[in-house]
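Summary for the steering committee. The consortium agreed at its last meeting that each partner would contribute one worked example illustrating the joint modelling workflow. Our contribution is presented below. We chose a case with several input lines so that the handling of multiple components could be demonstrated. No manual editing was applied between input and output; the record is shown as generated.
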Amino acid sequence: MPHLGFLLLVMLIGLCAADTKGKCRLHPACAILGGHCVKDPTDPIDCRGRLVPDGCRPGNCQCCIPGCPEDEGFFLLPSTNQCFKYFKDRPRNWTESNELCLAENLVMAQPYDAVNLRSYIVQRYGFYSEFWLGACGDGTYIQWQNNGDIIRSTNPLWYPNMPGNRITPVYCLLLLANDGQWKNDPETPYYSEYYVNVRYTLCE
Ligand SMILES: *[C@@H]1O[C@H](CO)[C@@H](O)[C@H](O)[C@H]1NC(C)=O
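What follows is the complete predicted structure of the assembly.
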């Protein structure tokens, strides 16, 4: 029978090797905000705070900043633990929404759970609450600005007949959030909208 100490050593070496392989690396952008990296941002156990895209590498790692301060207007979406800030002071065009998020040291939202997010916002902020998300057309697809991921036309979240040919840079991603859309088409909140039109702003 092999020595127990030897077995433990073999296990430890194995664990370390596995950890280094898929390890998340912290970038200054995350460190400066007091954050740390988490591997699976959709696992609520992993991050008790708000997630900031792009603070960690590789791509599926996310920067987690502890806390989601409600007194500063943030809210935490329980299903994915993503922390958002919603601005319903006045509607803005997409460019202005983007500038508002950046001015707050945030980015436009890229939700992991758009269906639950819409449901949360309609219930909390009322009947007409449509808001811009951080993705616009690149000529072929609607593309997330935070990580470059594309939203294919086959994505099940698209509202019927969307995005069609609304994939040029003058179209950006809108989350349909009024009471009627939420009740009638609960599973399809994505809409491609002309970027000059004004809607509310959601940052993360
Ligand atoms: C967006 O809104 C701002 C502020 O009203 C305005 O200055 C800007 O021209 C608008 N941009 C577009 C593309 O409509």
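The chain is about 25% helix and 30% strand. The pocket of 2-acetamido-2-deoxy-beta-D-glucopyranose is lined by residues 93, 95-96, 196 (CB under 6 Å).
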